[in-house]
Amino acid sequence: MLKKFWNHRYRIIFLVVTVFSLWYLDGVLSIKNDDGIMQASAMYYQPRNTVDVVMMGSSHVHYDIDTGKLWKEHGIAAYDYSAAEQPLWMTYHYLKEICKYQKPKLLVLDVYSPALQKDDYQYKWMLPNVLGMRFSLNKLEMLRVSCEKEHYFEYFPSFAVYHGRLNGLTKDDFAYPIRKFTYLRNFKGFKPMTKVAPQPMPQITQTGVGELTEKSELYLHKIIDYAKKNGIELYFIVTPYVINDEQELVFNRLKEIAGENDIGFTNANHDYDAIGLDFEKDFMDESHLNYYGAEKFTEYLGKDIAGRFDLPDHRGDKRYKSWDANCREIEKAVNAG
């Protein structure tokens, strides 16, 4: 009897050690890119049903919208749930994913990508859009509509793409599995960048209306329908960048769709003066604001959102202390340069 007891005990110990080892190694080897992967990963660590405003779309979201500033100035519990050049069919599945864990009152949708993309499959930035999402039927469906069959296993399962990490591991990688709960809980998606790269101020002249691709328009309406069915208000935005005439035509079509569905729409490229943007100092590249530009745009956006929508102010609520921590982490990152 004693021998059987110890054999059983050894099996349990072996199972626990195996599970822990797999969990730890997955954390060490995982790709920690903050152009989408960390934004998707951290969503699962947010206190349940605390995100009131979810900011979705391309990297314009997590470079240009400072969640800490929205919190400090308005008490808005916002989360930048975005990824590089994210197409609308992936945004749709991201929306379904966050609604498993949160009950957002407002979806602010950055509509840059449908003006940029003309192909039904976008492979350049697939990994940052895929790796942070946990395994689920929703993820499998997202992969089905996002890549052709011959490319499927280049992105799934996630650990299949970790092999290139073995030679580049750092101390932070080995510490990550232990510290990730606190780090990811306090991270709200915003990526402050202090690089300064002067840009030419675009001259917007187009008043005509262009077209979205059929697939983009289909998934835009899916997002609209899903949000309405789940009681989520919608607001479409275009963040400031060096826009061109072809993209402006598509934004004019998006503005029409927004109007047809009683959705607010703001193209901030018409409001450079109101925002106070300095094209010599406020950009990190032609497509993204740096931290200094993001502060100006976030102030503009925060006032706009607070004026349009009835959102609660959670400052002082203990359940929202991770937003206070987020402010401190952003300040620390900016000071570190």
In short:
With 337 residues, the chain is of the alpha/beta class. The chain is 49% helix and 9% strand. The protein has helices at residues 2-29, 37-43, 59-64, 67-74, 88-98, 112-116, 126-130, 137-146, 171-186, 214-229, 245-260, 272-275, 291-308, 321-336; strands spanning 53-57, 78-82, 106-110, 233-238, 264-267, 283-285, 288-289.
Describe the structure.
By secondary structure, the protein is of the alpha/beta class. It has a single domain, classed as Rossmann fold. Helices cover 49% and strands 9% of the residues. It has helices at residues 2-29, 37-43, 59-64, 67-74, 88-98, 112-116, 126-130, 137-146, 171-186, 214-229, 245-260, 272-275, 291-308, 321-336; strands spanning 53-57, 78-82, 106-110, 233-238, 264-267, 283-285, 288-289. Strands 2-1-3-4-5 form a five-stranded parallel β-sheet, with helices on both faces. The chain has a two-stranded antiparallel ribbon with strand order 6-7. The longest helix is centred in the N-terminal third of the chain and has 28 residues, at 2-29. It starts with a helix and ends with a helix.
